[in-house]
Amino acid sequence: MSQRVLVTGGAGFLGSHLVDRLLDEGHEVLCVDNFYTGRRDNIAHLLGHPRFELLRHDVTFPLYVEVDSIYNLACPASPVHYQRDPVQTTKTSVIGAINMLGLAKRLGVPIVQASTSEVYGDPEVNPQDESYWGRVNPIGVRSCYDEGKRAAETLFFDYRRQHDLSIKVMRIFNTYGPRMNLDDGRVVSNFIVQALRGEPLTIYGDGSQTRSFCYVDDLIDGMVRLMSTPHEVTGPINIGNPGEFTMLELAEQIISMTGSASTITHLPLPPDDPQQRRPDISLARDVLGWEPSVPLSSGLARTIDYFREALAHADS
Ligand code: NAD
Ligand code: UDP
Ligand code: UDP
Fold first, then answer.
1. 60 in Cβ contact with 95 (< 8 Å)
2. In this protein, which residues make up the domain named NAD-dependent epimerase/dehydratase (predicted)?
3. With a threshold of 0.95, does the pTM exceed it?
4. I want to staple 110 with a disulfide (CB 3.0 to 4.6 A). Which of 60, 166, 194, 275 is the partner?
5. CA of 302 relative to ligand 3 center, distance in Å
6. What is the ipTM of this complex?
7. Domains (ranges, CATH) in the chain?
8. How far apart are alpha carbons 281 and 303 in whole angstroms?
9. Which ligand number lies closest to the CA of residue 220?
10. CA separation (Å) from 223 to 7, 66, 86, 206, 272?
């Protein structure tokens, strides 16, 4: 059935893909974004669409609208961006969550929260399943993001316990794909842009740290499935691709796939950078019947094509 759906952070990387998917399914979409890291380019193709509405708004302020469901994605996600104004990052996660939960409570509608694998911090267990409580530094440079998202999870579960809200918390692991910003600062976009420009690929530390990369279409599929689950399903639920790679392997694969003459250079490892990260997705398999279907090589090929074109525009 067609619904009116609110997507906060809808002009961002993941948000804009979610909006596309919801419009394709026949829903009306209200996209709310303050354009802190989001871009008009991500949603330019939707302006004028009869079922798409855009509202420039900061979720740290109350929002009174009428919708049937809420996806709360508003929050900068790249370490470079979320550390630029860390106080605003915490406010966005915490006050933004309170406002969106207040909205969901008034309307009696389900709300999906874009949480993160960062709640696991620098984990002592690998892979991470949802029962792991995490190892997070409360006072470091990543804390505004990690602890902001952890406090948001607390709020979601307290609104559930106090008000029986239909909450759905997803812990998103590193996701990549078209529409990441050229200057996003995350590893996949950095490496691809550097390789295409023939610049050295910047590995932080010795490159032995691992991440698991999920292609954006797979991630959005999991997110939409989560929203359609019954009231009993609250999460938290990991959504990510269990394939685990070192940053050195990723750099070598991107150099080879782009046919680049780029070399590799090593820069200092940022503080509190997790050494390993890999999702246990048993719960998503059981509850959502979901698992990723796009292998890293195909996802990277599509993302490289996207950045080739984006760079041609940016450099022309
Ligand atoms: P992004 O930076 O591209 O998108 C975030 C969007 O939120 C942007 O459009 C930004 O302008 C908007 N925003 C930021 N603060 C806001 C505020 N106060 N009010 C309104 N809008 C605001 O990042 P993304 O990769 O698309 O991430 C989307 C969500 O998914 C975030 O909540 C992020 O924490 C989460 N997440 C992403 C990943 C990933 O790998 N991409 C991993 C884990 C979690
Ligand atoms: N809120 C909102 N839109 C709504 C309802 C609430 O933005 O439609 C905000 C409002 O600013 C409030 C917050 O959500 O402070 C939490 O709402 P809740 O009803 O839980 O708490 P209270 O209003 O009692 O503070
Ligand atoms: N990284 C890197 N070179 C870069 C950007 C990031 O080696 O140009 C490393 C970073 O130190 C981290 C990993 O790649 O170990 C993933 O970083 P990203 O910022 O993409 O995501 P997160 O650390 O939030 O998982």
1. yes
2. 5-240
3. yes
4. 166
5. 20
6. 0.97
7. 4-315 (3.40.50.720)
8. 24
9. 1
10. 12, 21, 27, 34, 28
